Amino acid sequence: MGCRGDARPAALHENASPIHHIEPGGLLDTEACRFEAVSDRAVRVSGMRWQPADTYTVKLEGVERAGYRAITICGTRDPLLIAGLDSFLASVRRNVEQKAADFGATPDRYRLVIRSYGHDGVMAEREPVREIRSHELGFVVEAVAEDQEIANAVVAIARTNMLHTDFPGRLCREGNMAFPFSPSDIEVGTMYRFSVFHTVAPDNPLAMFPIEHERV
Hints:
Blueprint: E1 20-23, E2 26-29, E3 34-37, E4 43-46, E5 49-52, E6 58-76, H1 79-83, H2 85-102, E7 110-117, E8 137-145, H3 148-164, E9 185-200
Helix pairs in contact: 2-3
């Protein structure tokens, strides 16, 4: 629970507030929560307040199939490629789109994602530090498509273009990337995404969770 000290950041998990936690039957207020060491192995937690809700609610979560995924992982330490990374990746994307379309995989049939670890692999476009400060970068190239065959084909095309797409000042013609695995392409399989995120207000709090007892 969200309490004073280092525990509070963890209390943001699936909560809009670190101190006010909305539960099925009400709100748990941890603003006045205190931790007190009783011994080397025991802690007393006190000060939390419970505010009952007028209506009992249940949160529902569910997923749906979003497609099929394939990935490849690679890395580079070429300083010229890293310096012009954005234009390099833009060229890769254009090449993939054109070559995938040649065998019938139009852009509406797949999604290509290139995560650049060492640049913005975690925060993506929300990353506030735009300058690349690393001497090497790692890439996870992901294709999600309507079927596994297209996903595999698109990631194979992307892998080839990450390896061989030209860039200004390029000296090495044998390949831009190092691949840690062989085979380099990994078929991940079915991918799911959240499709249900709703709050239900049942007339009877127990109606959605029937319990049966059997004597054996």
